[in-house]
Amino acid sequence: MEQLEAATTVERMLLEQAKRTRTPANGSIELLPLCNMNCDMCYVRLSREEMERQGRLRTADEWLDIGKQMKKAGVLFLLLTGGEPFLYPDFRRLYLGLREMGMIITINTNGTLIDEEWAEFLGKYKPRRVNVTLYGASRETYAKLCHYSDGYERTLKGIRLLREHGVDVKVGGSLTRANKDDLDKLLDIEQESGVPVRIDTYMMPATREREMPYNMQSRLSPEEAARARIHALKREMGPELFAQYAQQSIMKADHPAPAQEVPGHMACMAGQCSFTVNWQGEMRPCVILSGPAVSVFDVGFEAAWKYIVEETGRILLNAKCSVCHLRHLCRTCAASALLETGSYDGVPDYMCRYAEESLEILRKEWESLQNGKDISDW
Ligand code: SF4
Ligand code: SF4
User: Fold this and answer.
1) Residues 118-137: tens digit of each pLDDT
2) What does DSSP assign to residue 26?
3) Which fold, 2-220+267-315?
4) Mean pLDDT of the chain
5) Cβ neighbours of residue 330 under 8 Å, at least 6 residues apart?
6) 351 Cβ closer than 6 Å to some ligand 1 atom
7) pTM greater than 0.85
8) Where are the domains of the chain?
9) What distances in angstroms separate CA 1 from CA 244, 250, 267, 318, one per listed residue?
10) 286 C-alpha to ligand 1 centroid (Å)
């Protein structure tokens, strides 16, 4: 999802073509579950002891062998992620090997381990992009959320070093109760540094919080998340584009295109031209979905991909969503339906409230724009 969001027109065309032919053009490898930070909302991180109880890290040679199989199957875009991928013991050899195979590599990192040496290496052997996650915009937020108070300064330094070495960087982040007051400061980074910043305001429920009422969860309530989303969009788009977006969104909601009320298939890339493989070698359609799953080390890459395509094709979403007038404002998908409701064809209450509130705010924004007023707070 992440890679398509930032894809160029040519990349989008390649991925659309791959989707039609069920070619696994886009994938990610979660190299390890270890991280130097310990963020409250993380669903991947394990301590070394927890990891060792579950298995061992795969070696660079094992991944390079899978890399060859991936290449043969048509993988072109590869995301290396973790945990924190720069903690993977043989990262450089693996990265260079995959790069030599012709893979276009993106790296997801928290940015805190990037020093002069890493920046020089990545400047010399450039990835397509480094995606840096920012968890807040102050020492206090990093201490509270990630239990790593130096994190903010270190991440900013990492971003600066990468830029100095000519590496393409994109900043992403998720808004939660703990960092919501940092939203404007996070968005300011784009203006100050020229690095694109995208803040996600919707978060899937953390497993341990799923049964809790929204006001007890670490993510924002659906209404707060919608307000933050529109505020961020307004800043990202600028006044003219935002006005067009608001007008079109309202039009689509008030005059929805006719559609049939039938259960829908997954519309994203997952399991159609995209996959993820976790640190133990388990392939899944996407990072969030825990199933269908199959080990690439047990059955080989091609057989694993075939299985994922077949199983993903069986997943059906709720018919109500296929005719919903808020569909264009809603973020529901197989993974969110499953995590929010326990089933792929559930209709997530969180999503309906998020989409309804988004429309409500857009109406108010549109009205105020017509009256020459500006509502800038969220
Ligand atoms: S299922 Fe949802 S989370 Fe997974 S890739 Fe598709 S849109 Fe993204
Ligand atoms: S989750 Fe709710 S808002 Fe979203 S498409 Fe389905 S019914 Fe509409």
Assistant:
1) 999 999 999 999 999 999 99
2) E
3) TIM Barrel (3.20.20)
4) 92
5) 321, 324, 351, 352, 354, 355
6) no
7) yes
8) 2-220+267-315, 221-264+316-370
9) 25, 25, 11, 21
10) 6
